[in-house]
Amino acid sequence: MSASGSVDAEILAVVDGVERRAAARGERIRALDSVRDLVANDEAEIAIDYLVNTANAFGLPLRHDEYERLMAAASRLDYADAVTDLDPRLLLPAGDDTRAR
């Protein structure tokens, strides 16, 4: 897998997790589809920024491992600063996959 493909896969894996938790609380967040579209169109940096902004705007929590995964992908793109914009209140404690704001 190419570096770009690996980054894309990491971003999409995080989107999958966020989307599952949103669905579990009865929400369909269409903005996450836009994140997928950005990844598909080779716009990984914009996708990361949009994912972080979407999580902040909709109060979508990320597990710690997802945050680390997103940070690793962003670091490979030299774009880690965008991930630090995530509201820290949205980070789930280890083992917690349910909390929502």
Map the helices and strands.
Layout: H1 3-24, H2 31-40, H3 44-58, E1 62-63, H4 64-76, H5 80-83, E2 91-92
Helix pairs in contact: 1-2, 1-3, 1-4, 2-3
Oligomer: single chain
Q: pLDDT average, as an integer?
A: 92
The structural class is mainly alpha
SS element count, helices: 5
Strand count: 2
Helical content stands at: 55-70%
Shape: globular
As a percent range, the share of strand residues is: under 5%
* Strand order, largest beta sheet: 1-2
Order of helices and strands: HHHEHHE
List unreliable stretches of 5+ residues. Answer: none
What's the alpha carbon Rg, rounded to whole Å?
12 Å
Main sheet specs:
2 strands, parallel
Can you tag this structure with a few keywords?
two-stranded parallel sheet, 101 residues, 5 helices, 63% helix, mainly alpha
